[in-house]
Amino acid sequence: MISLGIESSADKLGVGIIDDKGNVLSNVRRTYKPPYGSGIHPREASEYHSSTMPKAIEDAFHESGIKPEEIDLISFTKGPGFGPCLRIGAVTARTLSLSLGKPLMAVNHPIAHVEIGRLVGELDDPVVLYVSGGNTQVIAFSERRYRVFGETIDIPVGNCLDVFGRNAGLSDKENPMGRMIELEALKSSTYVSIPYVIKGMDVSFSGILTHATRLLDSKKHPLEDIAFSLQETVFSMLVEVTERALAHTRKEEVLVCGGVAANSRLKEMLEEMASSHDASFRGLNADLALDNGVMIAWLGILMKQSGVTTEFEDTIVDQHFRPEDVEVTWR
Ligand code: AMP
Ligand code: MG
Question: In ligand 1, which atom is closest to the CA atom of 131?
Fold first, then answer.
């Protein structure tokens, strides 16, 4: 079985093709860049996706050497994400499905991150820390569903880093903003006190963002000290919740995915935590750790092979689609 997957939930447009043995045949990704100094505007990102989509699909077929008629399944992201962006992917998937006469599969984006991690990280049953610009969740499999053990109750950690970086006047032209903060943090080892906010198993970053921005405005501390302290604080919070999920579930593997997973300090802290529980730790390379069409295509295959179907009427997008809404039939 060969599946084509379309990912368009946020700033990235992904078109990926994978077969049922897990061979990645193509992984095309285009990224919408907002105007300098501003965040992602959903409508503008969706306009980027709709104008970029035809060529991205063409490139994916070209890269894979597969002909459109050889595709067996069209998978797309049902949610969560920005409504206007998700709708571009869904409309494209419906169009391809109707014109090629192939079935559709609507998939959950966080679960797709987990499943591509299990595949390429060769993991069986990890506790997953999913940290990106749009999501912050600790996810693990339990009782036939992927359960969210902890999550942000306000903004995602990547968004906290991005807005802080913009407030600090850092430019994200050469590197993602999180990487710019990481580079600042590397220059310091001076910790300035920042609130540590965990509520039960959940985390909160909006007050921390305000606090860090006020520290900047006070001009009492150099940027590198605040960047270092911000990283140490928010990553410690994430590692604590991940550790508690690991201890509770008694699993033996930890996986980190999403854009923030590129951060070396976060990976170092997670690795240390995992090893103290005799658990293994894995990150993924950026091509599959960031939003991509391959993970959507792969989850489509797993669902299809376990007997799941998506009726045309059920291809409507869901901005708040949660992992636990999906019954896991493929494990
Ligand atoms: P995603 O939403 O998965 O595309 O990831 C984008 C997020 O990852 C943005 O918030 C980036 O600032 C963040 N990011 C990228 N590289 C790094 C890094 N090295 N350290 C921390 N955050 C990063
Ligand atoms: Mg994502």
Answer: 3
